[in-house]
C-alpha cells in the first residue's frame, strides 16, 4: 500500500509512535511528510555538545516544547526567554559552578514553563541548604513539576549531602519524584527506606546505573 494514500490524521498517529530517526528519514521524502513529522522530530529535541545563544535563536522556528539546560551555554532564564513556546524545561546543570543560593535565585526567575528539576543542578553542600530547598524551592515559590534526585558528592561531603529516608519522604510530599539515584541517599535503616519507596508511585529507582520502575 502506498503510504501517501493515507489521510493526514492516520499518518500523524503512525508518526507519533515511530522512532525519531524513522521520522527524520520520512521527513526527507516530501514536503507533506516534512510538515507531518516536524513536531515528532522537534517537540523534544536532544543535542550533542553545548550550544550557544545563536543556535537557540535559529531553532525558535520549530515547535519545541521541551529542552534541557545542560545542552546550552547560557543562563536557564535566557533559554526560556529565547524559546518562548516551551512547555517544560529540564534544569539539569549547574550555572558556572554557582552556589546553592545563586542557583535558587536563578530558578525563581523562571516564571514559566514548569520545571523538571535535577538535584545535580543545585550545589547543595550544607544541611541548611536542604531546608531552603524543601521550604522555598518546593514550597510553591518555583514552578517545579517533577524532581530527579541525582546529585553527586565526594565521600567527605556525604554527611551533609546524602539525604536520609525521612528527608526523601518530606520531599515526596511536596513534589512528584520521577527518579532517584540510590547513591544520593544515606541508608542506615533499609526497612525504613523500603517503606518510603513503596509509597512513591511511578518513581524510577536507579541502582548502579540500572533503572527500575517502582511498581509497589
Describe this structure in words.
The protein is α/β, with parallel strands linked by helices. It folds into three domains: 1-44, Monooxygenase, CATH 1.20.1280; 45-162, no CATH class; 163-215. 41% of the residues lie in helices and 14% in strands. It contains ten helices and seven strands. The protein has helices at residues 8-16, 20-27, 31-42, 53-58, 76-82, 100-108, 127-141, 158-161, 165-172, 190-199; strands spanning 66-68, 88-91, 115-118, 144-149, 176-181, 204-207, 210-213. A seven-stranded mixed sheet has the order 1-2-3-4-5-6-7, with helices on one face. The chain is globular, with a radius of gyration of 20 Å. 20% of the residues are buried. The model is unreliable at 210-216 (pLDDT under 50).
Per-chain topology:
Blueprint: H1 8-16, H2 20-27, H3 31-42, H4 53-58, E1 66-68, H5 76-82, E2 88-91, H6 100-108, E3 115-118, H7 127-141, E4 144-149, H8 158-161, H9 165-172, E5 176-181, H10 190-199, E6 204-207, E7 210-213
Parallel strand pairs: 1-2, 2-3, 3-4, 4-5, 5-6
Antiparallel strand pairs: 6-7
